[in-house]
Fold this protein.
Amino acid sequence: MRFRSVQLSMRFIVPLALVLALFGYFAIPWMENLTVRWFVRDLDTRSQLVSSTLQQPLLNYLEDNDSARINDAFSRAIQDERLYALAFCDPSGKLAYKTDTYPVSLGCPRGAEGEEANPVVKLPRGPVHVSSRELTQDGIAAGRLVLVQDMSFIERRSEDTKKYILGLFVLLAGAISLITVLIAHLSWHGWLNGVRDMLRGELSPRPQGPMPPEIAPLASELRALLNEYNRELQGNGVESQPWGPDTLKTLLNQDLAGDQILVVSNREPYIHVNTPNGVKVQRPASGLVTAVEAVMRACSGTWIAHGAGSADRDTVDANDHVPVPPEHPSYTLRRVWLSKEEEQGYYYGFANEGLWPLCHIAHVRPVFRSSDWAEYVKVNQRFADAVIQEARSDNPVVLVQDYHFALLPRMVRAVLPKATIITFWHIPWPNPESFGICPWREEILDGMLGSTILGFHTPFHRKNFLDTVDRYLETRIENEASTVSYGNELTQVKPYPISIAWPEPVPDECDVAACRAEIRQALALPADQLLGIGVDRLDYTKGIVERFQAVERMLELHPDIVGKFTFVQIAAPTRSSLDEYQNFEARVRALAQRINQRFSSGSYLPIILKTEHHEQAQLRTYFRASEVCSVTSLHDGMNLVAKEFIASRDDEQGVLILSQFTGAARELHEALIVNPYHIEEGAEALYRALRMPADEQRERMRTMRVRVRDFNVYRWAGRMLQDAARLRQRERVRSRINSLSQNRVRKGEA
Ligand code: ADQ
């Protein structure tokens, strides 16, 4: 912020300084010239005065030939400190009388009308002003009086004037800069606050203050733009702010009028596991599950997923169905069983060793094996068969989740051509060159284009996808409508930034002060210990190593904070059977240990690493207890942890550090945005976060909370479903028109 305000000030000061310097460069010599000319004119007048005074006595002495008196008069006259020398030249132009000071080199100067053309003469002692005046007696020329006046005082004065003018310029530049910067800052803040208030006012039902006058001319345009944006987000006809489960239910009832909703994902939302204390239900640590679960609760459909838990088979019915959530069942989970080979090839192999590193820029090489690809094709077909089996009509709405099922849309479309298939790609999409290294790139793109709607988190990922399709398939792309025409089918490709369900107030939740005390006590930390938190799957894309390095660098740069700050990293193990992930976990552990050894004293450890799954409520307590939450992914489709942290801070305190390479950074501009590869930047952001004044924290947190609350997961799902409903409606109208015209043709034939 401070850097930005210096930048802003420089934007005014530098051009101002340049203009003033340029002005000074030309103005000072000009002023100098002008003052010299004024002085010369003064000296001319003075010469006239002196010669007029001397004329009569001199003529009298000349007439009397009284050299003594002439010399005496001359000596007296040059007692004036400015009059340096005098001389008299007779009519023949010979030097007749002169004071001792008279420079002989001047001789008897003549000038037009008795004046020298250039009266300034440079002598070794300095410049002098020379003027000669003709003396006449009864109209007859009696000779010339030559006056030499000292000009060194003019030089002195001119130097002084130069100094004063220069000083004046500097003073003026300072004053103008100060006033300009002050006014610019005030206006800038006025503008920012005005626009911010407007955005808040438009996006939330918060009561408004009066509009700042400087915003007024823009207000109507800004409001129109926001309304257009809102309409685009909400679709036509549904006026709902903020979105929630009920809005979604209403939308499903109105726009999709009882149409069946099927979700397909690899990860199941509930895993039944055998434990020594009987069967337990677990919720996996996954952003995808967090987001889609909220939708399914609202629309009571069927979720098809891989049954991976040790007690999963024991808890399903004959159709492999289990009602969930276990406490209040509201939708059906259909489990698909995979053999070890299938899981190894499709999930660990092609999806996680191939597609995951292919789509994330984290400098891990993708591995492609033909055997993995074969399993991927097979498993996609098995899930597609499950969708077809679960479909109660020929046109269900199928929500396909993520990179595990790139081929499934085409497979479902082959059997249910009227199905509305919405595929959401939860991870980034790379540029065409990067994607091009996949040996089955055409098959993947073809499979995905079996979708009716294809969603990405950001416009950037969407663009990358369209460029990739353009590069490798024969398609027609309409950029404005954001559609790809391929074969006889049309796929709409759009950004739908995912979010979280804005949490309802939790009645028995600890207030922030109590959460702080609870966590510090649990970790045996002093009550005033500063706390940082990181929550991730233990994945190499999440930037955990870089985050620890930033903590280390901050402790190096700011020794005052050693002992007072602890960073808690909660990392859920993930894909642990893959070498890459085992190596990564070992690196993370070793780094934490090294940093801890380096800075530990007594019981103090700067990093606490908890490599285990935590319940959402526990995570929330950690979020509420921390000064700062650090999200430093090297690349991330969106990142829901950032939004969960914001949602947990109803006290409007706490600072979010957010990697610029997350989709979330495109929305949460008030976070401290960092490049995770730049360790010093991360360290400074951490230190800045820990020292950030409460007011600034509140201002940033408040703005982000409004955004996350209003653009929640219900809105994410609602937008996709609304788009699907519109396309279904269009399709219905088209098929009605077709059948009408076919009827007419048939009647005509009969
Ligand atoms: P993920 O890569 O799983 O999701 P993210 O969006 O950060 O990433 O979501 C992780 C989820 O798991 C969060 O809800 C978090 O609370 C939870 N979680 C993390 N660690 C946990 C732990 N130790 N214990 C319990 N829960 C934990 C993918 C993409 C993301 C995209 C999401 C949603 O990679 O970019 O945001 O899908 O589309």
